[in-house]
Amino acid sequence: MINPESNPILVLDFGAQYSKLIARRVREANVFSLILPFNASLDEIKKHKPAGIILSGGPASVHAPGAPKCDPRVFELGIPILGICYGAQLMAQELGGKVEPATKREFGIAHLDHRDTTGLLSGMDARAQVWMSHGDLVTKIPAGFDVFGTTDNCPFAAFANPAAKMYALQFHPEVVHTPQGRLVYRNFAHAICGHDASWTMGEFAQLAIEGVRAKVGKKRVLCGLSGGVDSSVAAVLIHRAIADQLTCVFVNNGLLRKGEAELVQKVFRGNFNINLVYVDAEKRFLDELAGVTEPEAKRKIIGRLFVEIFEEEATKLGHMDFLAQGTLYPDVIESVSATGGPSVTIKSHHNVGGLPEKMNMQLLEPLRELFKDEVRALGRELGLPDDIVWRHPFPGPGLGVRCVGAITKERLETLREADAIFIDEIVRAGLYRDIWQALVVLLPVRSVGVQGDERTYEEVCSLRAVTSEDAMTADWFRFPPEVLARVSTRICNEVRHINRVMYDVTSKPPATIEWE
Ligand code: XMP
């Protein structure tokens, strides 16, 4: 999708947990970056016309049998290369230096003393905090290289051969524990690779729109809208490119949050004038879910019905050539295994099952190259309202997996009201963007209460709010107590069937973010 002429910086991934972070840091310096597996062929690398190459860290030792190595001709391309940790060791070893096991594994914060003349560390303090994580050490640097930074345990923490445009750092500038590390990627991208810092969301949007136009031509595109940020941004982007050749389908499964169906219709039909098929399938979902309490059974029913309904609508619309999806970059990056074998796990968001194959549609995934925060920036660039751009994630099975126990229209209504109050108070307290996801769960228990001198016997709800980077792990959010107090008071006063409010203080693991 990106214009290949824009000369990305390539990150060759040696299996580091930080490879994605490196790619992000480069993009934060307004230079487009792509991650390739370490064993990408020379042709593949050259095809991208990279302005520079970064060799990532990795868990292996360069001496291990089958240790991951890039094509050695990478070092002869004359393109600036930056090796980080394992990448630095590999560079040293491949170019005639020496790498040996350290007597003491170094893991954690260290202090780098440097006298940088290369420009790579420009702006960093002469003694700067850095993050180290390595078992091997470079003990001899290759001919032509000079050392320009050391730490107490690491005599060759920064070394380079500027004439050959090769730079190596034993520490990790991409992590937050290297507080001035962003400067390293900025310096590498601009001063060393000579990149003109042109990669902005505006530019990306323009190129992506042209890319969609070129790919789709006069054909037709179907897009399932969920109201979440990814599908919303994808839809608006595609609409900019091909206008009425796009049709969106939004299925109201009766398990949506308060006002969600209205918001989606208002924004996409009203603001953007997008062809939108709105399907009210509430009854169909609730009929099939009646009496079902087992979480997996609920999920299966909801998933199956969604695909059925989506397919019915697609059939009514006549042949569609493409199915648009909001797949993001973290889902498509090939992950390399620690042992160096090119094991490839590509996960695709097939929310609509095998529909593309069954209906002979191609996939259109205009966000494939973006990280989540970049999708948000793109959404803002395209004029989507903050309500959608900053929306917390919402699971496909919706309130169905937050209405623990039996799902009824009345219980869903109770949950929807409580959820709306919780989110409203979070927004009022200015905390919405500090929280990854906030939700209310209706529990399958009742409790005794007293309201206006009357005994009540009503439902109990639990609030859940978590911080997270990627939803793989999460911690419960520390609310100021007065916010929780306001939420609790309002829910008990305003939501008819709830008389008790709990706050869930469990992290993930051991709990998941959703309850079911
Ligand atoms: P858990 O509950 O497993 O959820 O900690 C992790 C993240 O994924 C979301 N989630 C889903 N998203 N379809 C989705 O699109 C689903 O079936 C689904 N289940 C959970 C959840 O809300 C959280 O952000």
Topology summary:
Blueprint (H helix, E strand, L loop, with lengths): L8 E5 L5 H10 L4 E5 L4 H6 L4 E4 L25 E4 L1 H9 L3 E17 L12 E14 L5 E6 L2 E8 L4 E4 L11 H12 L8 H16 L4 E5 L3 H14 L3 E7 L7 H12 L3 E6 L1 H8 L5 H22 L5 E3 L4 H4 L22 H4 L3 E3 L7 H10 L4 H4 L19 H20 L8 E15 L2 E14 L7 E2 L4 H14 L3 E6 L13
Parallel strand pairs: 1-2, 1-3, 3-4, 4-9, 10-11, 10-13, 11-12, 13-14, 16-18
Antiparallel strand pairs: 5-6, 5-7, 7-8, 8-9, 15-16, 16-17
Helix pairs in contact: 1-4, 5-6, 5-12, 6-12, 8-9, 14-15
Bound molecules: xanthosine-5'-monophosphate.
What does this molecule look like?
The chain is globular and about 85 Å long. With 516 residues, it is α/β, with parallel strands linked by helices. It has helices spanning 19-28, 42-47, 86-94, 181-192, 201-216, 229-242, 260-271, 282-289, 295-316, 329-332, 355-358, 372-381, 386-389, 409-428, 481-494; strands at 9-13, 33-37, 52-55, 81-84, 98-114, 127-140, 146-151, 154-161, 166-169, 221-225, 246-252, 275-280, 322-324, 362-364, 437-451, 454-467, 475-476, 498-503. It is built from 15 helices and 18 strands. Helix 5 (201-216) packs across helix 12 and helix 8 (282-289) packs antiparallel against helix 9. Bound molecules: xanthosine-5'-monophosphate (XMP). Residues 393, 395-397, 437, 471, 508, 512-514 line the site of xanthosine-5'-monophosphate (XMP).
